Structures are given as structure tokens and as C-alpha cells.
Amino acid sequence: MGGTPAGGTQAQPLSPGPCAQAGTAHTVTITLHSQGQVRGAVLHLPGAPRGSALALVMAFHGWGSSGARFERETGFDSLADRRGFAVLYPSSAGGHWQISGPRTDVTFIKALLARVEAVACIDRSRVYATGLSNGAGMVARLACEGSVELAGAVPVAGDYSALPPCEPMRAVPLLEIHGTSDTVVPYYDKRAYGGSDALGFAAAWAARDGCAEKPTRVAFAPHATLYSWSGCENGVRVEQLTLYGVGHGLPDAPGALVHAPGPTTISGIGVVWSFLAPIVLAAPPA
């Protein structure tokens, strides 16, 4: 039977959710309130047919930057369009991420993920994080405190010395990338969290993930060596990519402020995505 519901108001059809819609490549600006602050992010979505759940890479900028600026400087959007994944560029409050102390930024990211799901068709089993410098420290903190939601992490040229104690609820796949000629966050940093250098940080992560004590070492590319730990819990991967003679930054990035100087021959974003793409959470969050 038809008619008007009690109260005289015509029933309105429910709008279709984001997974019921097809879309072309576009960028969305997201604003939300988190713990009394107005926070923002930029979300780039590739073209996708209706019903296609997208992997999501969260990309965290370095000190003094922003999500919008990091989007312009990394080149991630063009790779995302070619490979069919979404990229989220959050902005920190005050120009830097809180990698120690209050969980303000961890709480913000959790709220931001919920907002992204409301506007885009996201595969919760394929949510990843990468970041540069101070953003890399934030990635490491999320891998510690948001391990249930994060399928994999790739911190680049990060300072991990200020991280709080790390007690993830599950083993998290991780690749750390660092240049030996980094003068901003030195590769051989005696304060480094869990070890004496970038390789020590990765070794500590491998121990946390239940991996074998000693890594294998292979030539990854000219001026680059990859360390890989085997036997990790649930088959996760833990790796560290050492870039010899390379400075602070993301290799082959188009933006001058994030480009890593030195004799590297690799694409930073290409390496990031190659590591993350095969990883799928066995039990994604509801």
C-alpha cells in the first residue's frame, strides 16, 4: 500500500552509500572537529567502478608542512590513479605530529578514518600508513597504538627516539627506509628507539613481531641494500632499506622540499606501494 506515513511527512529514499557509486579521479577536502580542534585532510580518490572497495594509504607529512602540501610534493596521486588506490593526506596541528605524549593525533586519525569511510568505498583490510621524517614517527606510533586497524607501515627517514613504549596488539608488517647521509635525522643516531640506528629500529620491530634475530641482506638497487627478517608472526614482513650516500627525504619525489638528495635510483613511492600492496588484514576491524 502507498500513502503518507503517520505525521504527514513523505518518506525520503535513503541515499546510496559510497560503495554504490562509480566515480572519476578526484580530490576531496575533509574537515572535522577532534578534541576541541578543527582538523583537516586531503583525500585523493582514483577512478573506480561501482562497488570497488579501495585500498587506502595514509601519507603523513614532515615537520612544518601540511597534508595539501605533501600531496603536491610526493607524486602519490598519479601512482594512485594508475594502481587504483586512495591516498589520505592528514594535516597535523601546529605543524608537527605528536609522536610522544598525549594521544591527540592518534584519536584524530581514528576519527578521520571513520569520516573517510562515509565518503569513499574503502577496504578496511587494506589501510596502510607511510610518512616522512616527523610523519614517519607518527606512522610508527600508529603501528604501535593502532595495530588492529593498520595493515602495514612504511616510515621514511624518521626519528623514533621519542616514541612511547610500543605494545601493538598484533604483528604489523613494516618497512623502514633511510639514507646514510641524512643530516636531519641521522641514520646512525645513538638515541634511536630500540637500537643504535635506523637498522636497529627495524631490528627491534622485527623482535616485536617475533621474527628471526638475524636478517638476510641483499642488493636492492645501486646504492641500496635491503635487510629482511624471516619467521615473523602470521607471516608478516619486516624490512629495512638502507640508501647509501642518500640524504633526508623521499627518493625521486617531484617536490624539492621532500626529494632525497644523493645517488638513489629508486622511486620512493613505488617502493612504498610495492611493499604495502600485497598486505591484507586477516581480521579487519568492524
Describe this structure in a few short sentences.
This protein is of the alpha/beta class. It has a single domain, classed as Rossmann fold, CATH 3.40.50.1820. It contains six helices and ten strands; from the N terminus they run E-E-E-H-H-E-H-E-H-E-E-H-E-E-E-H.
Characterise the protein shown here:
The structure is a single chain. The protein is of the alpha/beta class. It has 6 helices and 10 strands; from the N terminus they run βββααβαβαββαβββα. The radius of gyration is 20 Å and the shape is globular. The protein starts with 25 loop residues before the first strand and ends in a 10-residue tail after the last helix. The model is unreliable at 1-15 (pLDDT under 50).
Helix-strand layout with pairing:
Blueprint: E1 26-34, E2 37-45, E3 54-60, H1 67-74, H2 76-83, E4 86-90, H3 104-119, E5 122-132, H4 134-145, E6 152-156, E7 174-179, H5 198-208, E8 216-221, E9 224-229, E10 238-243, H6 268-276
Parallel strand pairs: 3-4, 3-5, 5-6, 6-7, 7-10
Antiparallel strand pairs: 1-2, 2-4, 8-9, 9-10
